[in-house]
Amino acid sequence: MSIAICPGSFDPITLGHLNIIRRTSRIFDRVVVCVMYNSSKTSPMFTVEERLDMVRRVVAKYPNVTVDSSSGLLAEYARQFDGAVVVKGLRAASDFEYEFQMNLINKKINPEMETMFLTSSGKYTFLSSSVVREMARYDGDLKGLVPDEIIDDIREKAKQWRMR
Ligand code: ADP
Questions:
Q1: Which residues belong to the active site?
Q2: How far is the CA of 95 from the centre of ligand 1 (A)?
Q3: Could you list the residue range(s) of the whole structural domain that residue 110 is in?
Q4: Is residue 66 part of a domain?
Q5: Which regions of the chain does DSSP assign to beta strands (E)?
Q6: Is 104 within a domain?
Q7: CA-to-CA distance for 155 and 77, rounded, in angstroms?
Q8: In CATH, what number is assigned to the domain containing residue 64?
Q9: Segment 111-150, tens digit of pLDDT
Q10: Residue 42 resides in a domain
């Protein structure tokens, strides 16, 4: 059985992430979406539990996709899945440079781990979680940026932020 791991911080999950997850689910028998929370990104908008809950809701329609979380290194996390391939999305040249470097480090930690890249779908190349957070902060329209099911969660969180 072929297994893919789609890692990310998903703070929050966007339609760009979902596009990569959906395409990966067509290529591999099983996909594990892993919410990583070890990252250097400080003060996330959502807690890990909230991110997990949102990701679970939006991928529920894909029968071969499951959701997990990890606070460790991706290269260590991947060891538990025999022969799993990490699948990541590439938006721009800047993503490439970062991912290339990460891949070299991951190979040092876990030489068995392979990483594959899917190029971002044209309409999502501009889209990132930080764009969504910025839009939400100013009460912008989130339709077309994130899955409809989680728009209210983001609006509610942004409202709490503004009241702080
Ligand atoms: P972000 O950069 O939005 O904070 P993450 O750290 O959660 O996202 O990234 C997880 C993975 O999803 C990375 O491989 C990243 O390149 C990919 N990704 C994020 N946004 C998009 C997008 N709009 N199109 C394709 N891939 C994306």
A1: 17, 41, 91, 129
A2: 9
A3: 3-125
A4: yes
A5: 3-8, 30-36, 65-70, 85-90, 114-119
A6: yes
A7: 32
A8: 3.40.50.620
A9: 999 999 999 999 999 999 999 999 999 999 999 999 999 9
A10: yes
90-111 pLDDT tens trace = 998 878 999 999 999 999 999 9
Query: What number does the ligand 1 atom closest to the CA of 15 have?
Result: 23
Amino acid at 44: P
Q: How many domains does the chain have?
A: 1
Query: Would 17 be classed as within a structural domain?
Result: yes
Q: Which of 5, 11, 20, 120 to mutate to test the pocket of ligand 1 (most atoms within 8 A of CB)?
A: 20
Strand ranges across the sheet with 30-36: 65-70, 30-36, 3-8, 85-90, 114-119
Helices (H) and strands (E) in the chain, counts: 6, 5
Q: Residue 10 and residue 69: Cα distance in Å, rounded?
A: 11
